[in-house]
Amino acid sequence: MLNMQNVTKIFRTDLVETRALSDFNLHVKEGEFVTVTGPSGSGKTTFLNIAGLLESFDDGVYDLDGENVRHLNDTQRSRLRNEKIGFIFQSFNLIPDLDLFDNVDVPLRYRGFNGSERKRRIERCLELVGLANRMKHLPAQLSGGQQQRVAIARALAGEPRFLLADEPTGNLDSKMAHSVMQLLKDINDEGTTIVMVTHDPSLAREAKRNIFVKDGKVSDVTHISASAPEPIASISASGARHV
Amino acid sequence: MLHLSSWEIGPIFRAMTRNKVGAVLIALQVAVTMCIIVNAVHILMERTMQMARDSGIDEANSFYLSSTGFADDFNDQVVIQTDLDAIRALPGVIDAMQINAIPISGGGWSMGLQTQPGAEFEGVGTAVYMVDDHVLNTLDLELIAGEAFKPSDIRWRQRSQRDWPAEIIITRALAENLFPEQSYQDTVGKTLYINDDEPVIVKGIIDKLQAPWVGWERLENAMLSPEQTLFSSSTYFIRTEPGRLDELMPAVEQMLADSNKGRVVRGLRSMQETRDRTYRRDQAMIKILTTVMITLTLVTALGIVGLASFNVNRRRKQIGTRRALGASQVSVLRYFMLENFLISSMGVILGAVLTVGLNIYLVQSLGLTKLHWWLIPVGMLTLWLVGQLAVLGPARRAAATSPAIATRTV
């Protein structure tokens, strides 16, 4: 599903050159739930941006669902993001002037679905996250947990094969965080591949595999599930261990 | 592939209704701008058309000056004849005559002409030009019916004299005002009445000659009376060959001054200068209105740029999020252009109503003419275009927003 080989990303200013990712290698299989942890400045967000085609990279190979994305232009990257990737952001990133229905509708309009198809998907996804009765509410009228559920509904509405979550519980209390996490696990159980960046070790343990990033590289891989260890041949990390 | 659903008209409109202050202010600004600009353009067009009206004479090659005798032995009649003979003999002069008033100059004579005698009948107002038999050639007028004056038709008129010559020539417009049911040719030979009951016969019809008063609604009502005036001052009107005006104006003035020391020669002025002076206020109004229109348009455009720039800066995270969710740069550009189009649309619709309202007020209170209907759609299109051009810069900046903004927490 996601295959990065020796991906390098360098941020340059007039005075400084910063290697955010250096020979970053990662292979995520279809249906996996992978968490990405690491200290601040380790390159987690840069990885997420590159994985989500939000940012370009300087060197290496990145195949998303079998398609080499290195030389895609902006329109092609936008289309790929829209069709294959669902995003969940730490601060929800809902559009404050739009109600829940219109918020979930945003990616579907870029997809070009007709009105009835969009309505069907929006209602189904808001139903899934338990907010079907609040479609006409504005984001500001919801709690943080509810807003994140809307963001998840928005991410799911396009039926992406790949969900990228950036600290999705970072702004939530523990109860809400657990609820959101359970929702993500349910989504993963239905076959959607999820890569989630998090600071929270307890959440990381709920995934099937945890990638620890340090200094722009994968430095450690932990398989959470004892039943079926994942192949790690493509990961150039220092080691892998089962919990 | 272009999908209509991706145009987001509904969500943009709904979002605007929830955050409406900026949009409403810009829409009002667009409406007021349109209202003022369209009415200003209408006034400009009206003034320009008034200024472009043909006076009927050869303005480009004509000038005039006056002679006022003061010496005890000054004989007006002799001097006038001598002067005109001398002027007509100058190389480059096509013709010359004495006249009592200058077309479009602002000052002259007027009378009322009636088709029936009697004080109870209403007269039709007309400008009166007292001229001699050289009038057609001097003013470059076209006789379209009847006959021109002969030298024997011309009489001398004293200041205190009240009666009128037996025959006159009138303009086609005056003929049609006097006899609206008839062809102007049929007016030739008809008897008209001046001073309620003094008969004058229409000897001929000229195509066009404007009165001295450009603001008069019957500007083309004029009559030519075959007489030379023996007033204290005589005005000579001279027509030159093309390109000889500048040379002949000082030459004629000098010749007259030298020929008789018992008079003052003054008031030398070309018809072009007369036209410029007559329409000076209109020209000033055109400049002021043009400045106002340009300033208003710029202020409105800057307002749109300001609101769009503010919105782009305020929504950077939102734009990044949209980009992350699949919006291409074109989609973001289109979003802001469309948003402006909707705001401008509200503005121009309200503007159309205000424009008509202001025009009705101007028609009723200032006697302005009714607006040409097509100025309203042209005004709407112009304001739409101004809005789209103004928003283009901020929209392009928005489109250039990186989708990676979406994952930044600050």
TrEMBL record, chain A:
One of its GO terms (molecular function) is ATP binding. This is ABC transporter ATP-binding protein. The keyword Cell inner membrane does not apply. Keywords: ATP-binding, Nucleotide-binding, Transport. Gene3D superfamilies: P-loop containing nucleotide triphosphate hydrolases (3.40.50.300). SMART domains: AAA. Residues 2-240 form the ABC transporter domain. It holds the Pfam family ABC_tran. InterPro entries: AAA+_ATPase (IPR003593), ABC_transporter-like_ATP-bd (IPR003439), ABC_transporter-like_CS (IPR017871), ABC_transpr_LolD-like (IPR015854), MacB-like_ATP-bd (IPR017911), P-loop_NTPase (IPR027417). It comes from the Bacteria. The lineage of its organism: Bacteria, Pseudomonadati, Pseudomonadota, Gammaproteobacteria, Alteromonadales.
Automatic annotation (TrEMBL), chain B:
The chain crosses the membrane at residues 21-45, 288-312, 341-362, 374-392. It is a multi-pass membrane protein. Residues 292-403 form the ABC3 transporter permease C-terminal domain. Keywords: Cell membrane, Membrane, Transmembrane, Transmembrane helix. The keyword DNA damage does not apply. InterPro entries: ABC3_permease_C (IPR003838), MacB_PCD (IPR025857), Macrolide_Exporter_MacB (IPR050250). It is found in: Cell membrane. Its main location: membrane. It comes from the Bacteria. Residues 30-243 form the MacB-like periplasmic core domain. Belongs to the ABC-4 integral membrane protein family. This is ABC transporter permease.
